[in-house]
Amino acid sequence: MYKAILFDLDNTLLDYDRCEADSMHRTGLQHGLEQWEQFTWERFWETFGPINWGYWSDRVARKLSIHQVLEYSFHDTLVKLDRDRTHSTALARTYWEHFCAICHFETGAKELLGELHGGPKLGIVSNGIGESQRRRTASGGIDHLFDAFIVSDEVGHWKPSRPIFEIALQELDVDRSEVLFVGDSLQDDYEGAKAAGIDFCFYNRRKIALEERIAPRYVVERISDLREVLDGR
């Protein structure tokens, strides 16, 4: 019986892809992107996605705020699509406000948390941005369920580094042998849990084949199946 369950947030409890798409479509509607001549969302995403990922990946090394990441991403996207780049700041602000207010759950996640609440301690360990992670969970009505809420930009450590997990263990006041961490990323979550000596449950939402060298303690393809793991089935 685990005394605490730690969760990754995006694409584990929350459907990040749906949150992102919903926020962007609302931003596009508000700023009239769909009225552009020959505009298609497919072309926009094909352009924006790689640019945004590049800035996001380099944000720590370059000391970029999330607002700079978004503004630069929109700016470069507008330039590449031959649109007016002066709208980048407004687009970034609108998108961020929508993103922080939207909470779409992975199927069964909210119900699972409700069932677990009052049993083992619950915590979040996320590589996201504190403002969005806290506002989104509050919007979804689950923020009060967690006994620890650890976000990388607030503590200065990022998964898969061990220190971010050590902070969670300290806040939960449990031994690493008493904790299960649940996440969808082999690079950040699996490797992080292994480095911290914590049991790991891989939420294999994309049903990928695992290499022999990768050996999480548990694997589930639906987040609701965590019930069976905790019940020992």
Automatic annotation (TrEMBL):
Molecular function GO terms recorded: hydrolase activity
InterPro entries in the record: HAD-like_sf, HAD-SF_hydro_IA, HAD_2, HAD_sf, PGP-like_dom2, Pyrimidine_5'-ntase_YjjG
Broad class of enzyme this protein falls into: hydrolase
UniProt keyword annotations, A-Z: Hydrolase
Keyword Transmembrane helix attributed: no
UniProt-listed Enzyme Commission number(s): 3.1.3.-
Protein name: HAD family hydrolase
SUPFAM superfamilies reported for this sequence: HAD-like (SSF56784)
Pfam families: HAD_2
Species, as recorded: Paenibacillus hodogayensis
